[in-house]
Amino acid sequence: MWNSRALQQPLLFQLLILQSLLVAAVLAQRSTTPAWNTLTGNRPLVIARGGFSGLFPDSTTLAYNFALSTSVPDVLLWCDVQLTKDGFGLCLSDVKIDNDTDIANFYPNKSTTYTVNGVCTTGYFSLDYTSTQLANVSVVQAIYSRTNLYDGLPILTVDD
């Protein structure tokens, strides 16, 4: 039997966070004096690496859209690019893709070992798979203490 109260608590917490961020964004836009004093006197450049990845899985549509909607007009969005065997660029935060995707569900026991920065590293690497093989693989929250509510989003390509 579902405990509806237990299911509502994480959602309520997330809505409170969203509301707080939106209020802060509105108040910041109303201010006539700069909120930040930078060394150059210009407003700070906001770089959203992976989007708003504090709440959403890194480099997902939700993370990028939320960063765009709650940031300055000229925010710079960027993703870390991992290449597939057939040369497609994927937006994934680490060279090992098993931490932020569910690839092990599709290819169990298919990890490989490469020397990465002089260290033997075992895991799943995008360069071992084609874009077609990764088409059904989803992005998951890479920090396990965060909610998995948004897991299952598609892997974005550089073209996306």
From TrEMBL:
<keyword id="KW-0319">Glycerol metabolism</keyword>
<protein>
    <recommendedName>
        <fullName>glycerophosphodiester phosphodiesterase</fullName>
        <ecNumber>3.1.4.46</ecNumber>
    </recommendedName>
</protein>
<dbReference type="InterPro" id="IPR017946">
    <property type="entry name" value="PLC-like_Pdiesterase_TIM-brl"/>
</dbReference>
<comment type="similarity">
    <text>Belongs to the glycerophosphoryl diester phosphodiesterase family.</text>
</comment>
<feature type="domain" description="GP-PDE">
    <location>
        <begin position="44"/>
        <end position="160"/>
    </location>
</feature>
<keyword id="KW-0378">Hydrolase</keyword>
<dbReference type="InterPro" id="IPR030395">
    <property type="entry name" value="GP_PDE_dom"/>
</dbReference>
<feature type="signal peptide">
    <location>
        <begin position="1"/>
        <end position="28"/>
    </location>
</feature>
<keyword id="KW-0732">Signal</keyword>
